[in-house]
Write a structure and sequence with these properties.
- The chain is an alpha/beta fold and about 280 residues long.
- The radius of gyration is 18 Å and the shape is globular.
- Helix 1 crosses helix 7 and helix 6 runs parallel beside helix 8.
- It has one domain: NAD(P)-binding Rossmann-like Domain (Rossmann fold, 3-Layer(aba) Sandwich).
- About 40% of the residues lie in helices and about 15% in strands.
């Protein structure tokens, strides 16, 4: 049985992936400072991190100091945001290099956006990964159930605002488009990449997304309709991605296809939140 290490296991994708792989009977080791203060990936040379990686057969490097647009707009230009992510990468990549473990690095479709510190840091992570012959996946607005209010992404933020306030105050005018992917579909893609690891190369990042564009305002209106809530767009444009639109590489569709529509995915989150 493979021992799978998930760095960033308490994050939006990591939490789903931990549950998903356990159901597939993999042995999963979770590692995240959010659930255990001793599991701090910023500690370069830490023996606990080394032991976790050395004891694993495969590593999912999902850990990053990141959140939704509100979080990025507030923190990505701060010293702590930059320092946290640089130290996480220095620590983890150093041990991955010494232990020669196969791994997947979670990058972002924003990695070519040089005006974004988040994008620059993900591009740096891609360079590290290529130097170690790991595998790079680019996430495009993966969404799912979330627990950390400070790091909520748009869909969770909209649902909770609509449910409790009957009002969705948007950060932008909502005209920007996003390529959303439900977290369970993302997990299936990650498992496929792991299982076909030697089929891919570090020079060809795999774009994991739904390949369907949706306006943010349409997402807000759909969620509002479930709660008889009002949607109030802001006057400003998107300040995080600045309306830049990358087109995803469709190569991965030869091996995996998303299953969950944006409406079905939102409904799943609404059902879970309504139970809480």
């Amino acid at each position: 049985m493979k021992n799978i290490l998930i760095l960033g296991s308490a994050g939006q994708i990591g939490a789903y992936l931990s549950d998903y792989l356990r159901k597939k009977t993999f042995h999963v080791t979770e590692y995240d400072i959010a659930t255990n203060s001793y599991q701090d990936l910023r500690l370069v040379g830490d023996i606990k991190i080394d032991y976790a990686i050395r004891s694993s057969d495969f590593v999912f490097f999902l850990a990053f100091d990141v959140g939704g647009s509100r979080y990025l707009e507030k923190y990505q230009n701060s010293f702590n945001f930059i320092d946290n992510n640089v130290r996480i990468m220095t620590s983890v990549f150093d041990i991955l290099e010494s232990r020669e473990k196969p791994f997947i690095f979670a990058s972002s479709q924003m990695s070519n956006m040089s005006y974004s510190n988040y994008g620059i840091l993900k591009a740096l992570g891609e360079s590290y990964t290529k130097s170690l012959n790991g595998r790079i996946v680019k996430f495009w607005n993966v969404y799912g159930y979330e627990k950390n209010p400070e790091k909520y992404h748009a869909i969770t933020d909209f649902i909770l605002s609509a449910k409790y306030n009957k009002l969705i105050n948007m950060l932008t005018d909502g005209q920007e488009e996003r390529d959303f992917l439900y977290a369970t579909d993302c997990c299936e893609a990650l498992e496929m990449v792991m299982n076909r690891y030697n089929h891919f190369t570090s020079d060809s990042p795999l774009h994991i997304t739904s390949f369907e564009w949706t306006k943010i305002i349409d997402v807000a209106n759909y969620i509002a309709s479930h709660y008889d809530a009002e949607v109030v767009p802001a006057e400003r444009k998107d300040l995080v991605q600045k309306n830049k639109r990358n087109d995803p590489d469709r190569f991965i569709l030869d091996y995996w296809k998303p299953k969950t529509s944006i409406s079905t995915g939102i409904n799943k989150i609404i059902e879970r939140i309504n139970v809480d």
